Amino acid sequence: MIRHLLSGADLDAATATQILDTAAEMATVAGREVKKLPALRGRTVVNLFYEDSTRTRISFEAAAKRLSADVINFSAKGSSVTKGESLKDTALTLQAMGADAVVVRHPASGAPHRLANWVDGSVVNAGDGTHEHPTQALLDAYTMRSRLGRLAGLHVAIVGDVLHSRVARSNVLLLSTLGAKVTLVGPPTLIPVDISGALAPGTDVSYDLDAVLPGVDVVMMLRVQRERMNDSYFPSAREYARRYGLDGPRMRRLPGHAIVMHPGPMNRGMEITPEVADSPRSTIVEQVANGVSVRMAVLYLLLGGNNR
Amino acid sequence: MTAYLIKSVSVVGAAPTDLLIRDGVVAETGAGLTAPDATVLDGTGLVALPGLVDLHTHLREPGREDAETVESGSRAAALGGYTAVCAMANTSPVADTAGVVEQVWRLGREAGLVDVQPIGAVTVGLAGGQLAELGAMADSAARVRIFSDDGHCVADPKLMRRALEYVKAFDGVIAQHAEEPRLTEGAQMHEGEVSTRLGLTGWPAVAEEAIIARDVLLAEHVGSRLHVCHVSTAGSVEVLRHAKARGVKVTAEVTPHHLLLTDAKAETYDPVYKVNPPLRTATDVAALRAALAEGVIDIIATDHAPHAVEDKECEWAYARPGMLGLETALSIALDVLGPQWDLIAERMSRAPARIAGLDGHGADAAPGVPANLTLVDPAARRTIEPAELASRSRNTPYARMTLPGRIVATFLRGEPTVLDGKATK
Hints:
heterodimer; A: alpha/beta; Rossmann fold; five-stranded parallel β-sheet; four-stranded parallel β-sheet; B: Urease, subunit C, domain 1; TIM Barrel; 2 domains; 28% helix; Asp/Orn_carbamoylTrfase_sf (chain A)
């Protein structure tokens, strides 16, 4: 097993599949009356969050607690971080407290890589800047596999602000490792340069959502911040929604079996309409539940695999 | 004043000869020289270059003496084979008045290890709004001739035009940090495949090339001299080639790191590789090397940029850009160009001395010439250990790399500043 989970690229097909299989076992725990396993008793997991992300933090917190780990939530807001303590000094503090794993969310791309140099424990990237969010990609893959029965050969459209999306980067890497085909869709201003060479050969780019929809098994809508229009990425929120938003008529262009995903939080009316978000095709609520199972699997394998 | 007799040394790659240094000048050259009063140095296997001249050095004093001082930077320069460095203006306070440039100049004289030639800011506070008192700096004891807002681009085209025109009165030159600021908002590294993978905001090549294209046209229009700092892209080389063919009075520099390293170094997220302009691609490196050999790029300048540990031991986006260069530049040049001594002397000493107007520097050892020279052992190889550097800072991108060449001795007007690879003071 790997020591850290910093990027979707850290996972080969066998390791990723092992995580997904383990997550399926973990999911059975959620159905029990006592939702707890003793696997990580006596181990300490620190949630080090430099960005507000209640959903991701509580997902990791629930995962660690269900495995009986001791959980310390270290939020940058209102802590020594706001007084300007460096990431390195924080790392040394966590190290001294004996953290077995540090789950880190940070606004700067690469911060988890830096942290991994300074702590002995495992580092899990819970989202870094505009770089990656590998456990999101794992839970997305888990959700696709649960709904559609496989990953190899699936065609997945990832739609929206790919340029600023850590979810998109991790998904492209992991999905291509697992044999799915990815098409990135968005206005040219929000598609980063050299994406195919940068992430995975064979990744397609399209600027035409309507043309892509009939041929996909999965459409994953990314959150698009309205403020991007102030930086000229698109003219207005309405034009964005007209060209790249997923509404009812567009959803009906999808093949019958296709699913609609969104990592949340959604901008209803921007990239996705309520009709689509609340439709039976939508996996958005499932993704949240699957997130706990997948994060349990990641913590279990990183911590259990190392020192047992 | 001690006389020095250097036996059997190759002057810029020529057949070995003896050099007698006395009273600050090269007194005699030729085979079999004797001088009973002189200290004899064995120059066998060594190459004597004219003392290197750096057109682009950050000495950090005044303001960030924790990162570098005029004295520590001067020592690093001497150990790197330099006899003159041009100190950039982005200090705190900014070198935008006669008082500050005279302070830096005086500190350089007191250190006495290299000639420190201050560069003056183009605009007040480097803010890009209003011309600094360029004439006052030119007329000061520091005799400033190069003006630069380095670290910031003089982005306003009207202000750039006026600056280019104004300094003609005292044969000044504007050294431009070419970076269109609107195209590089939040930029962290070269925009390309690696920035896409790493999720770091891209610094597109066109942001440099667009400013160089504009500035060569402005320089042509007003008949002024323009110097382009740290050229980093293949496209910039093409713009410069075109401008030179038209007869524009433009000169350009490239840094050692842009000749050797690529953006792939960012993969570690270690900000020791964060620099502005950023490390580019292998294609750019190849184009820069060819342009340097050809003369489209006139000189190597270090952009020596010391930074305190805490400004580099952090997240990439929060780190300051810049890397050390003075103590490794000649080794990088040797590594990149090979033992083309005349070319190295031209690009690292003669041409920068001409651009800066530094009389007494940039002249090959010959009778009557000021004894500003450095002795290089081209056969030596050394492994770069950050802790052993004379700079106060440790942000070298070459840590633990083994590089060719070693500076054995450096002479400033006949006085050794380095002997046996060690600074004399």
